[in-house]
Amino acid sequence: MASSIQIISHPGPGVFDILMSRMSSGPKKKMVDANFSAVGLVQGKLVDMMLAADIAEKAADVQVYDLKGSCPQHLTMIGIFGDIAAVKAGVDAIRLQEKQAGKKG
Asked: What is the CA radius of gyration of the chain?
C-alpha cells in the first residue's frame, strides 16, 4: 500500500467547506451535527483506500468517508474524522500496515 497521508487538527471553516463539497449527500447529513476535532486525509489507489478505511475504523473510534475527486484528477481519497487522538490512532495503524507490507515485498 502506497499512500499519501496528512492530519489536520481543528480544520478551519474553509477546509470544512471543501471536505463537505467532496462528500456525497448521505455523509453530508451526518457531518452537519458531527463533532470532530481532526481529519486524517489518505490518498492512494482505490483498493488501498478500502483497506485503509477498514484499518482505521478497526483501530479507533473514527468515521471514514470517501472524498470524491473531480475531473480531470480522479483522485481517490478518504477522510478519517474524529477527535485528534482517535484520528492519530487510525492513521498510525494505516502507517504500520504500510510498513509491514513494505517488509514483505
From this structure: 13
